[in-house]
Amino acid sequence: GFFLQSSLPDYDLLITKATVVDGTLQPPYQADVAVKGDLIVEVAKKIKGTAKRTINARGLYLTPGFIDLHTHVDRGMYFPENRACLNYLKQGVTTVVVGQCGSSAWPIFEKAEDQIKRWREEGIGPNAALLIGHGTVRRLVMGDENRAPTPVELERMKELVREAMEQGAYGMSTGLIYLPGRYAKTDEVIELAKVVASYGGIYHTHIRNERDQLLEAVKEAIEIAEKAGVQTHISHFKVMGRKNWGLVRQACELIEKARARDLEITADQYPFRFSSGYPYRSLIPISTWRGEGQERLTNRDIDNIFGHLSDKELIDLYQKTTPYIPFHEHHWQFLRSLSRERLVQYIGRSILSTEYFQGPENPRERMFFYKRLQDPQEAAKIYQEVENYIEELVGAENFIVGVCVEKKYEGRSIREIATMKKQSVGKTAVELEMMGAKCIPLQMSEKDIEYIMEKEWVGTGSDGVAPFYGIGLTHIRSYSTFLHKIKKYVLERKTISLPQAIRSQTALAAEIMGWPDRGRIKKGAKADLVLLDLKHIKIKTSISNPHQYSRGVRYLVINGEMVIDNENYTGKLPGQVLVLNKK
Prior knowledge:
It is built from 22 helices and 20 strands. The protein is an alpha/beta fold and 583 residues long. Strands 1, 2, 3, 4, 5, 16, 17, 18 and 19 form a nine-stranded mixed β-sheet that branches. Strand 11, helix 9 and strand 12 (265-269) form a beta-alpha-beta unit. Helix 8 packs parallel to helix 9, helix 16 (376-393) packs across helix 18 and helix 17 (414-421) packs across helix 18 (425-434). The radius of gyration is 25 Å and the shape is globular.
């Protein structure tokens, strides 16, 4: 039986004749790459030896696996059906950073270790690093109250951040534009960021303003970096709203001055002109739609609607109306810990945020609105208000119809459709809204996107989700960010070179997150690999049909395991939960 011994292959995987783009800025070169276990064990012009599997990669580009610095896939990956995160694997993504914008990667009612344990036992597609969400922590300790924490509350918040860091979180995220994050003053964030810094963690931030106050918001991020001594990363760096376009140049200057003073500040971006996980925006502002006297709900309204229900009835109602939250023991503990007042407000707001305002789909509100349109003076006023809103936001030429029952309007701007209909922008917008059209404002300018992309400290973050395939209208970035960036900005527009694009989504991202063994093709690195067919990249998503997998990734290897094999998903879940090595 001795001949069996010698016939064991030298490698698990041998990739030959590949054009290697290794994550650094050096030009592509021809090489063979050998993998054994979960490591790259050899990179050479020619590798002799046998392998369990050999792939002739002539004509294909071999790059490190892509690292997505900013995703919200954790909510979808909660469900076993979405653990693979196939929409990301098909783009070449091998690692995701989750728990962004102040919302923890694990549901509010669990601890980091619960999520890590579940994912390790059940398996995930890409590797994942978890952040603790500041908003989640704040809400646990003080609800949605608009005030500074008391010294006792601040201590409790620090404890929760410390606990998450101890259990394996990589850092903390804030969403200073969302509730309850926006109620936090800078010094509160600094205190919590100091805890993160003491573990060598990273602070990711959705800054306080991405419009006309962009510069102030960037200055705040720099102040937090400096005073907390924490490595700081700005999420989905951009400026929105036509009148603010161009501000990113001054924002970049602020960041570069801070970097010159040795502050560790970086950013990521997604390469699209429109924002938001659910990108479709109403064409009629709520104030116009509701007219006079239909104001937002107050706390007293919620008490009036829900105050008569018992705790049990409240919780039963909550469970029926928020099916996306799987109920665990942690959940009960959390709800039981709330005071009666907070329970009513928490559950009432959760239910009403899904039920209360549905625009044209809400028959009662539609009836009032329709009645106002019958009065010529009132109608003229409505059309003017709507037109002003659209022009102020992005301009009618930058508001695009994504989904419409009248298919001829899909993909066209409101301006074009108004011309086709020979009527005003305001009237056209109201007609489209009343027939349920879903429209997208292009909030960013192409020039700004390209300006940011060229910066050597800006990585790639899709800001996407792991949706149920085919369900709902998601942003196309969930299916196409990484390959879209290469196709549009490298191959078509030539904004950046191929090595620059690959570095921004591999080695740079690994460096930002502190992973010396990922994001590069070199001996000893983890075998996270993409074999890309550059000539045949196909981005199939459109705003009318976002659930379309991208094409171009021929093979994908995660931790040495073949996950995409000749464009087909193998069913494997080799992703690891990456945890911070504590200092």
